[in-house]
């Protein structure tokens, strides 16, 4: 069976809502559902977050990152951490737990290595999205952060299913792994729908797949594209697909008012590094 046929089969399965998620993601999905309830309280959310050690650790770590802790006062409890980061960022971190758990679904050593590199790429893109949104495109930083976290979720799912479909991730067939119509993009769309991804974020991911970056960047899609191209850790799936940078970091610079993109990123390097470390926790 060739890769294109495999992708069609996986896409059909995913579209039928027959997705295989690790059971440990249920708590993070419950947090997302509670956030959709206008009557949910901070205390209810804090108790639910505390019930999941991975999510609780991630929330406290991000609350103490440079971006959210400008005063330098550390927080050690979940309730105050949720209060500091806000509900939008909590939603992002719940999604991050889901994606990170999907990394753990890889069943072979080779595929686990791919998933680890894909998560490292994801963490860099998400942190850059947050900074680029605040400093350059002026879209909602929390939404941009979410888009960065979720943009490769379909890739994690493909890695998880790869042992069931020999040849799916063979480099020799990599060109068929490109996020094209009717191929891996359909899998990505199905997983995004399963996670109830907001339309604006799904549209931004579609913009990433299309690969057209507007200059100067303005939209959420531009924010995600720019972060993806600037991330020092490249997606291993892009390399398999033959669409990677071949080991060379993208060199993109443009002027914004009295600043340049490179200058903004240099000034924000500590923020980016701190957020990446928090996501690795």
Could you explain how this protein is built, in words?
The structure is a single chain. The chain has 281 residues and is mainly α. Helix content is 62%, strand content 1%. The chain contains 15 helices and 2 strands. A hairpin with a 2-residue loop joins strand 1 and strand 2. Helix 4 crosses helix 5, helix 9 packs across helix 10 and helix 11 packs across helix 12. The radius of gyration is 18 Å and the shape is globular.
Write the layout of secondary structure elements.
Blueprint: H1 3-15, H2 26-35, H3 42-50, H4 53-63, H5 78-85, H6 87-103, H7 109-137, H8 141-150, H9 153-161, H10 184-194, H11 199-210, H12 220-230, H13 236-240, E1 255-256, E2 259-260, H14 261-267, H15 269-280
What descriptors fit this protein?
62% helix, two-stranded antiparallel ribbon, mainly alpha, Hypothetical protein af1432, 281 residues
In short:
With 281 residues, this protein is mainly α. It has helices at 3-15, 26-35, 42-50, 53-63, 78-85, 87-103, 109-137, 141-150, 153-161, 184-194, 199-210, 220-230, 236-240, 261-267, 269-280; strands spanning 255-256, 259-260.
């Amino acid at each position: 069976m060739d890769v294109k046929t495999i992708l069609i089969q996986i896409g059909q399965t995913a579209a039928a809502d027959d997705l295989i998620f690790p059971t440990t993601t249920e708590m993070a999905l419950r947090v997302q559902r509670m956030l959709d309830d206008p009557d949910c309280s901070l205390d209810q959310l804090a108790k639910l977050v505390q019930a999941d050690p991975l999510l609780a650790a991630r929330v406290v770590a991000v609350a103490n990152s440079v971006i959210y802790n400008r005063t330098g006062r550390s927080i050690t409890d979940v309730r105050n951490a949720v209060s500091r980061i806000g509900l939008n960022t909590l939603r992002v971190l719940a999604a991050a737990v889901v994606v990170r758990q999907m990394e753990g679904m890889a069943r072979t050593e080779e595929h686990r290595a791919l998933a680890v590199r894909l998560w490292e790429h994801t963490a860099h893109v998400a942190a850059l999205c947050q900074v680029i949104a605040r400093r350059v495109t002026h879209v909602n930083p929390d939404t941009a952060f979410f888009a960065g976290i979720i943009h490769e979720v379909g890739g994690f799912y493909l890695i998880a299913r790869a042992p069931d479909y020999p040849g799916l991730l063979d480099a020799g067939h990599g060109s068929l792994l490109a996020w094209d119509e009717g191929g891996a993009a359909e899998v990505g769309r199905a997983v995004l729908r399963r996670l109830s991804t907001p339309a604006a974020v799904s549209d931004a991911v579609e913009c990433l797949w299309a690969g057209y970056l507007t200059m100067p960047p303005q939209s959420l899609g531009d924010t995600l594209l720019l972060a993806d191209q600037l991330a020092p850790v490249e997606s291993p799936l892009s390399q398999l697909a033959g669409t990677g940078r071949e080991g060379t970091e993208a060199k993109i610079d443009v002027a914004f008012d009295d600043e340049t993109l490179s200058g903004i990123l240099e000034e924000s390097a500590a923020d980016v590094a701190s957020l990446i470390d928090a996501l690795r926790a």
